[in-house]
Every structure is written in C-alpha cells, then in structure tokens.
Amino acid sequence: MGGVSSSATEFRAGFACFVGRPNVGKSTLMNALVGSKVAITSTKPQTTRRAIRGIVNRPDAQLVVVDTPGLHRPRTLLGERLDSLVLSTLTEVDVIGFCLPADEAIGKGDRFIAEKLAAVKKTPVIAIVTKCDLAGRERVAEQLLAVSRLGEFAEIIPVSAAAGEQLDVLARELIARLPVSPPLYPGGELTDEPEQVLVGELIREAALEGVRDELPHSIAVVVEEMAPREGRDDLLDVYAQMFVERPSQKAIVIGPKGARLKDVGSRARAQIEALLGTHVYLDLRVKVAKDWQRDPKQLRRLGFYD
Ligand SMILES: Nc1nc2c(ncn2[C@@H]2O[C@H](COP(=O)(O)OP(=O)(O)OP(=O)(O)O)[C@@H](O)[C@H]2O)c(=O)[nH]1
C-alpha cells in the first residue's frame, strides 16, 4: 500500500482501470465516477471493446480511468487480442479496480482474473463489490468475506453505481494510490477518446439493439469521415460503415425494405447530435467482411491494433 499516507495538500494524478468478468458493471461504474456517459453500457456482455478513458477532476487530484474490456478466456483471435490489451493495460496503470458483483457467487471467471492480477505484482488492486443495491446487507457481508479469500487486495469496497453509494469512498481510495503529479490532462476534458471512435461506438450500440442474441459480437463500425457541410457551420456529415461477418447478418441488420437500418440510423443520429451538440447527417452503409473476428488484416482495419 505504498504512497497512501502523504501530505493532503499534494496534487495527485494518474491512471486507474477496472477489470472484471463481462457484465459486472465496469462501464456503469466508470460513468458514475466520471459523471457523464463516456463508455457504452449494455445489458449484454462485451460491449466495451476499446480502452475508453474518462477523467475525474478534483481540486486535489486528476484520476484518468481506463475502461478495459472484460477479461475473459480467449476463444477467438479477437478474444486473444482483447486479453493482451487488458494485460498490457494492467501493468501501465497506477491502480486496478477488480469488480465483482454482490448479487452473484464468485465463480471460475473471477478466480481466473484474480490469478492474472496476482501476477501483476507492481500495481495495487482494490476489489470493488458492485451492484450492492441488488443484494441485502447480509449477502453483501458474505460477498466481502468471500472476496477477501480470493486474493491479496489493498482494499475491498462495496459500491452501487446505480444508487450512487460509496463512490466517493472508492474515488478517495483510488486517488490515494496515484503518484504526486501535476494534472496529466489540463483543461479538464472528460475524455481523450477521438470523437470518431465514440461516434462509432454509438452507432454500434444502436445497431445491436434488438439483435444482440442473433449477432452478439459480429458487428463492427468504422467512421470513415466526419466533416462540417460546406457553407454550413451547424451541420456535420458523418460517413460510417458497419461490418458484419456474413450476408445473412447483413439482411438482418438492414431489415425488410431497409426499415431496420433506417431506424438504427435515426437512433444513432440522435445520440451523436446529443454528444456533439450539432445537427448531423449520417451516411451509414453495411458491408460484409467475411469472418472479420478471425482475420488479423480485417481486425487492423477495424481498429484493433497489435
Ligand atoms: N442494479 C444495478 N445494476 C447495475 C449496476 N451497475 C451496473 N448495472 C447493470 O449491469 C449491467 C452491466 O453493466 P455494464 O456497466 O455494461 O457492465 P460491464 O462490466 O462494463 O460489461 P462489459 O462491457 O460487457 O464488460 C447493465 O444492465 C447495468 O445497468 C448497479 O450498481 N446496480
């Protein structure tokens, strides 16, 4: 627990990331800490595929939160790439938050992650028992005990992102483990993720709505271009391509007479307009990129770098 006790007047700044099985509430927690919607949340696992940063600015500290994808056993090449991304993130941050939901028993997946974390010796790990609003007091107490048996943690903190409970305690403990440093991102921006990536995530989220069971991980979105319309300062043209793996999936995404795609486009457009505060014209096309999840060249094109 090095670096916890020191003068309260010193400014601290650094990086934190959250790990945990899919669906344990990492994105929701990050959004609650940052106080604005930055990552994309969903009721289905593995929607977060990129390290999206949110920044918590305080008078005495700046905490840069790197939201990592769910750490899981690799199944496809995409899975392996996600995991190597996660592992390299773990060694680069100042503190790790390991999320375990209060309302589910600790399982194989949690133990797998606990083992990985034990190997990352240099970074302190704070265990976070999430979704405490879904469990009674007794259940939360049992979970805290179970978590304490799972590994060596700097702290174990129960929180509820939904109810806004204990978020200040969590932020304090995360910040206490950051190095003394001036702000890393002056100016207080909430996110350093390029706008195009966020826009792509919003489109993907809209496209997944209603077809998650049919196409769980088969949709990728690339925003090719974003530019203000010539002669207009209130309209942004966005050109995006949605990739699916098979022609049958293309048919699902487009829907009868294009109705579904039209709906996806108008929902995504509303979200993008809300994010960027300008009118948006969205040109959205669907392409088949055969088995993109398994093809290294396609993965690079779609933004999953080595
Ligand atoms: N009741 C309750 N639900 C929560 C809380 N936090 C998250 N959830 C719900 O749990 C589900 C998963 O939350 P996410 O934040 O997307 O989980 P994640 O761990 O980021 O998931 P991946 O991106 O798949 O790794 C969503 O339906 C959330 O609304 C909480 O504190 N209380």
Description:
By secondary structure, the protein is of the alpha/beta class. The chain folds into two domains: 12-176, Rossmann fold, CATH 3.40.50; 195-301, 2-Layer Sandwich (GMP Synthetase, Chain A, domain 3). Helices cover 34% and strands 22% of the residues. It has helices at 26-34, 77-92, 108-119, 137-148, 167-176, 195-208, 247-254, 259-276, 296-301; strands spanning 12-19, 52-58, 61-67, 95-101, 125-130, 155-158, 220-228, 235-244, 279-288. The chain has a six-stranded mixed β-sheet, with helices on both faces. A three-stranded mixed β-sheet has the order 7-8-9. A hairpin with a 6-residue loop joins strand 7 (220-228) and strand 8 (235-244). The relative contact order is 0.14. Residues 1-6 and 37-52 have low confidence and may be disordered. Guanosine-5'-triphosphate binds next to helix 1.
Key traits:
306 residues, alpha/beta, Rossmann fold, GMP Synthetase, Chain A, domain 3, three-stranded mixed sheet, 9 helices, binds guanosine-5'-triphosphate
Which quaternary structure do these chains form?
Answer: single chain
Share of residues in strands: 15-25%
> What is the CATH domain class of the largest domain?
Alpha Beta
For the termini, the CA-CA separation is 33 Å
Number of helices: 9
Summarize the structure.
With 306 residues, this protein is α/β, with parallel strands linked by helices. It has two domains: 12-176, P-loop containing nucleotide triphosphate hydrolases (Rossmann fold), CATH 3.40.50; 195-301, 2-Layer Sandwich (GMP Synthetase, Chain A, domain 3). The chain has nine helices and nine strands.
